[in-house]
Amino acid sequence: MEQIIFIIFLLCIGYGLKFLPFPSNFAQSLNLFVIYVSLPATILVQFPKIHFESSLLIPAVVPYFVLLLSIVFVRVFFKNESPNTKAALYLLMALGNTSFFGFPILEALVGNEAIQYGIVYDQFGSFVILTVYGAVIVALFSGESLNFKQIGRKIITFPPFIFIFLALVFGEMPQVALPYVELISKTLVPLAIISVGFSMQLKLDEQRGVFFRFMALKLLLIPMIVFGMLKAFDIGGVVGITTLLESAMPPMITAGAIAINAGFAPRLTASLVGYGILFGFFTLMLFHTIF
Predict the structure, then answer these.
(1) For residue 264, how many C-alpha atoms fall within 13 Å in the half-sphere facing its CB?
(2) Is 96 helix (H, G, I), strand (E, B) or coil?
(3) Contact 262/88 with Cβ under 8 angstroms?
(4) Where are the domains positioned within the chain?
(5) Phi first, then psi: what are they for 115, rounded to 5°?
(6) Is 253 exposed, middle or buried (0-12, 13-18, 19+ CB in 10 A)?
(7) Residue from 12, 5, 7, 1 nearest 198 by CA
(8) Deepest in the core among 27, 96, 172, 193, taking most CB within 10 A?
(9) CA dist., res. 102 & res. 123, Å (int)
(10) Per mean pLDDT, which range of 48-62, 110-124, 248-262 is the poorest?
């Protein structure tokens, strides 16, 4: 509980910094540090601890199951909405905040051993979906042309992906360097959560019906379906709870930024991302309790 309180405290700090003379791209700067320094250090520490077994397929495959559910739900429950609104919902329904918000929550609710499985869910699921599926949605709804060569280049040059490869090749860090890399990895939680807080927008859009339907589907129904699937296949332990919590994460801030930059219902998008984080605290603790 103390770690959850600490995360809320960091969120409040990040949100409070919006009212001080910080540059508008402050969160982007923090994100770059997390992507290029904190997360690679965490991968170097945590990834060699992973025992490669069939259970790893669960956090690697479930993000794509969530993607399919999301596409179906947007088509069924939001079929009468405008194309721009549907484009935003396609992005936000499929993509959860599985790293910047997800890793700190996993550490708080499950423990440090969950991070290795969270990395699998995030890097082999969320990031690939964001890069490929995100590009497809933007192209389809904004009239752009797809460049799969550029998409592939983005994936293989993404710093965390590079460090996963290095961790696979070289294994555990040398003992002389490990304490320093662990120290750098500890910057992940505070910087990521402060960045999330700084990025939060809490102005509720007038599309309240869309807002509440989306929240019910994203934060409750999709995780409940994943929960049922995990129980049906008797998947428990750290792998099971980590996969469930990652599937229950609120909308991804990066996906929201892509939607806003593309002009896809920017006010609604900002509200869904901001309030999703607040509502997500309660739904994540609920699923952690019932698992």
Answers:
(1) 28
(2) strand
(3) no
(4) 27-201+209-290
(5) -60, -40
(6) buried
(7) 12
(8) 96
(9) 12
(10) 48-62
CA-wise closest residue to 118 among 231, 249, 229, 217? 249
Which stretches of the chain are DSSP H helices?
2-16, 26-33, 39-46, 57-77, 83-94, 102-109, 115-121, 127-142, 148-156, 159-170, 178-185, 188-199, 208-216, 222-232, 237-247, 253-261, 266-290
Contacts of 230 (CB under 8 A, 6+ apart): 58, 236, 240, 243, 244
pLDDT tens digits, residue range 169-211? 888 888 898 999 999 998 988 888 898 888 887 777 678 899 9
Name the DSSP class of 251.
B
Where does the pLDDT of residue 28 fall: very low under 50, low under 70, confident under 90, or very high at 90 and above? Answer: confident
What gap in Å lies between CA 126 and CA 214, rounded to an integer?
A: 19
Quote the CA–CA distance of 133 and 128 in Å, as a whole number.
8
Give the tokens for residue 254. Answer: 């990066």
Gap between the Cα atoms of 218 and 273, Å rounded: 11
For residue 146, pLDDT beyond 80: no
pTM: 0.88
**How far lies 98's CA from each of 40, 101, 110, in Å?**
15, 6, 14
How far is the C-alpha of 233 from the C-alpha of 177, rounded, in Å?
41
DSSP letter assigned to residue 147: -
Sign of torsion over alpha carbons 248, 122, 102, 85:
negative
Q: By percentage, how much of the chain surpasses pLDDT 90?
A: 52
27-201+209-290, CATH topology level: Na+/H+ antiporter like fold (1.20.1530)
Round to whole Å and give the CA distance between 270 and 205.
Answer: 9
Q: How far is CA 245 from the centre of its chain?
A: 11
